[in-house]
Specification:
Elements: H1 4-13, H2 25-49, H3 51-63, H4 65-91, H5 94-130, H6 137-161, H7 166-176
Helix pairs in contact: 1-7, 2-6, 3-4, 3-5, 4-5, 5-6, 6-7
Length: about 180
Amino acid sequence: SVRGLTGSILARAAGESPSAEPVTTWGAIKLVIGWFAILVAMGIGVLLFAERNLDGVVSALEQHFSRSFWTGLLTQVAAIPVLLLLLVGLAISVIGILLVPFAVFAFVIALSGLMTLGFIAVARFTGRAFFRSSGEARTVKLRWLFVGLMIYLGLWLLGAVFISSPVVGSVLRAGAL
């Protein structure tokens, strides 16, 4: 398959048949460029409207990197069990059962927001490590974010370029992940 190992596994998990149209190299590159544009827009939004929160996450990364890493990893692993515990707690009462769809929606939105904030903070932290600059504080932070996103999505772009090679493309995408 042209999708590579990871693409084939994800396609089967999504219920696609093996005869589904494979993703082309250009299609994969466009997908990476699209995600880059979305993450830059989200990063600018966070810098404009939640800069203090982002600065707090970045400073936590700077001061306690290993603790931040393990906390983030544990949070991702514990997300589904916490959601199931929340649903069981709500299912105890009749009113709670009615709140289950809202709780799932709110949980997914909150978790997505926290994960996005964490990724944007890591991208800015990484950009700062690779790109030292001077100037107005907000402009410098935007440069750091842009460089960090280019580094991380550059790995995905490399995987997209080699999507036609099942082994190399899969290894590069697994490394990017």
